[in-house]
């Protein structure tokens, strides 16, 4: 009898958690499991804004796959997925092809630019170790350049953050803490630096509690961050941006624009032949693709409706890791010939946005608002919990955040 | 009776040593001394290649003027010299003017580009804290970019060093040590990085002992540095260079070109009306300008012939600091109404070129060749001695180099 072949695409929060859970449930004799990832490391996507600002080294954010995955039980293939062919039960990689009996798609997100001109070419996005450390270097390079030019160029010191959602605000909190250090390093007057958050909605962090939003804005404004709400980015050039507010267009010169206003699922979904809804797979309750019951979808590529609000759950690490547990359970059931698959149910453990190393805001236990040190502590515990889920206590001790006092 | 006014231009090795020596010899009642410098810090020009490579933080290389100069005895003016008017006994600054009875000109060097197209615009020079830390950031930025591009661009990882003299070779030694760290930081194969020294003469370090040159080349080649001798830089573009060797021209793509092949005295000398010889003042034995006996010239702006070789002494920190001692002595004599001024005599304490943190070559005690650990140790002692001369034991303990084992 042939062992079933399970292929997991992506070692993000969803893919790596699926792999880690599966290696506990299945032995080499049960199934042949392959994990495919572009890099030989997993990274904590939710920490990348810290690497991008330069407040945390990127090596703290990434974890070698072989440190988490038991390579006696799971084969690891470092390669890039080029195409998913669910009708042929095949995945095309850059350097090869894989057949599967069961597939788990955890290929994450891409930036969505909504057709705004110049974003692709001129803005930075916080979506990988490579892009995050480039942002850090790009900002630092411009600060280093500033005093080398006779004619001072303010655009070297202006940092535009497109989007006042979670990522934008968390990045603003980090860069606000980093700028005074950079100014000291390069003999620059902090008053010459501008950090500007552009948000199209009437408020930052739309949907968050207004009291917490007020708290966040005060915390960031005190550290020099400016907010332009109801302001739409119209164009991003290499040396500046144009935004529209109250039907008036304004330019800001800036060599650094961080685009944090939109994400979409990996575009491979759209071209895969899997049934999809605006690029995401509207998974069944058991997290299988409706069109292909041998394909599970995890994380940012899966579309799951929140019955209470009638809107899809936003893509977060929290939901991806919970989905992975359900998928691991269901895959194990299928391999063992069981018919009853578990239905996914999201347990909302709350949501905390960091505002820098020692400040944060959030909602936990359903409706309890927290902010300041309490929230910052919670945020670090959430980060540590994610590490624990993936790599146990050893990983928490190695990469965890303990700078809590 | 009016106290004589002494103005010292520049806080480089020559200017700062003059100031430090003078404050020991003269009191506030003897003379009114003013030190003018562009920045509020002195820097060890001979260490800048380490800051540029990123192997030493630039704050180790610079010293606040007020930490060395006794501001009870010497006024410090942070300003840029715009013009020297020796016939009017006046110095024009960006934000003012100063009269003097005695002037010390220690305005250092500029890059000499010999009319090679593109050097001014596209090459970096190692001549200030600002330019050195920019080089560090520029190189690191390009390494950070490398893996962010689908089409890999080798010019991001190619580093051209124009000139195999002291500065070029010392920089090569540092960057050769830094590159493996950068490769680790940005997941780059060290084999993809090129460091290329271009030297017009048939050998690097022209004039140095051939055995030591051989040693230096072996040490650097073992760490990946390539040498092209008898090779003239013909053009420097923003993304590459053209050099000529054996009457054949070759291009090398490179976003980083360090120009270390030529220096000249500060161009203010030429426009000052001081008698000069190709931009330098051919000082009298007492180090006064032949055309203006109330002007002393120290360091890179002074031309002093080596009687033994019939050629001018090269501009070094060693000779600048020795000149400063003579100038301080002679100024003090003049202020005290003495007629007999001391003649400058250069005492050659040898010459050691660093090849990175733990390797060096040099000649000391006239003709003793040293290399490897011994030379590296000597180099660090030379660096520490310069600190001692300027700021005593306190400064040595604060900024000195003790990583000698």
From TrEMBL, chains A, B:
One Pfam annotation reads Pyr_redox_2
Q: Does the keyword Transit peptide apply?
A: no
Molecular function terms, GO-annotated: NAD(P)H dehydrogenase (quinone) activity
InterPro entries, A to Z: FAD/NAD-bd_sf, FAD/NAD-binding_dom, NADH-Q_oxidoreductase
Q: Which GO biological process entries does UniProt record here?
A: aerobic electron transport chain
Keyword match Flavoprotein = yes
Its needed co-factors are: FAD
PANTHER family found in the cross-reference section: 64 KDA MITOCHONDRIAL NADH DEHYDROGENASE (EUROFUNG), APOPTOSIS-INDUCING FACTOR 1
Family note: Belongs to the NADH dehydrogenase family.
Protein name, UniProt field: NAD(P)/FAD-dependent oxidoreductase
- Record organism: Radiobacillus deserti
């Amino acid at each position: 009898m042939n062992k079933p072949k399970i292929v997991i695409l992506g070692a993000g929060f969803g893919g790596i958690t699926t792999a880690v859970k599966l290696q506990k449930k299945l032995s080499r004799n049960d199934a042949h499991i392959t994990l495919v990832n572009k890099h030989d490391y997993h990274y904590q996507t939710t920490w990348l804004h810290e690497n991008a600002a330069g407040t945390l080294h990127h090596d703290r954010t990434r974890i070698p796959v072989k440190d988490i995955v038991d390579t006696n039980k799971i084969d690891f293939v470092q390669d890039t997925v080029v195409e998913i062919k669910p009708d042929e039960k095949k995945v095309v990689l850059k350097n090869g092809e894989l057949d599967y009996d069961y597939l788990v798609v955890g290929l994450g997100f891409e930036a969505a630019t909504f057709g705004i001109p110049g974003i692709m070419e001129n803005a930075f996005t916080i979506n990988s170790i490579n892009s995050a450390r480039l942002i850090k270097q790009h900002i630092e390079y411009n600060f280093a350049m500033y005093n080398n030019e006779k004619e001072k160029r303010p655009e070297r010191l202006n940092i535009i953050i497109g989007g006042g959602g979670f990522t934008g605000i968390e990045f603003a909190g980090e860069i606000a803490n980093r700028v005074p250090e950079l100014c000291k390093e390069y003999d620059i007057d902090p008053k010459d630096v501008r950090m500007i958050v552009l948000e199209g909605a009437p408020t930052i962090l739309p949907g968050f509690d207004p009291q917490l939003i007020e708290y966040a804005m005060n915390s960031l404004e005190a550290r020099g961050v400016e907010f332009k709400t109801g302001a739409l980015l119209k164009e991003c050039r290499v040396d500046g941006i144009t935004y529209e507010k109250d039907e008036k267009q304004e330019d800001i010169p800036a060599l650094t624009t961080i685009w944090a206003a939109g994400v979409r699922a990996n575009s491979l979904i759209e071209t895969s032949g899997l049934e999809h809804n605006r690029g995401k797979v509207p998974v069944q309750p058991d997290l299988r693709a409706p069109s292909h019951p041998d394909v599970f979808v995890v994380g940012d590529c899966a579309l799951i409706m929140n019955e209470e609000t009638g809107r899809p759950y936003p893509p977060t690490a929290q939901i991806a890791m919970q989905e992975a547990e359900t998928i691991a359970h269901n895959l194990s059931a299928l391999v063992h010939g069981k018919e009853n698959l578990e239905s996914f149910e999201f347990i909302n453990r709350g949501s905390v946005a960091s505002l820098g190393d020692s400040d944060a805001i959030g909602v936990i236990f359903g409706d309890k608002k927290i902010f300041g040190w309490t929230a910052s502590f919670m945020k670090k515990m959430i980060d540590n919990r994610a590490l624990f889920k993936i790599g146990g206590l050893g990983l928490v001790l190695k990469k965890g955040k303990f700078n809590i006092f």
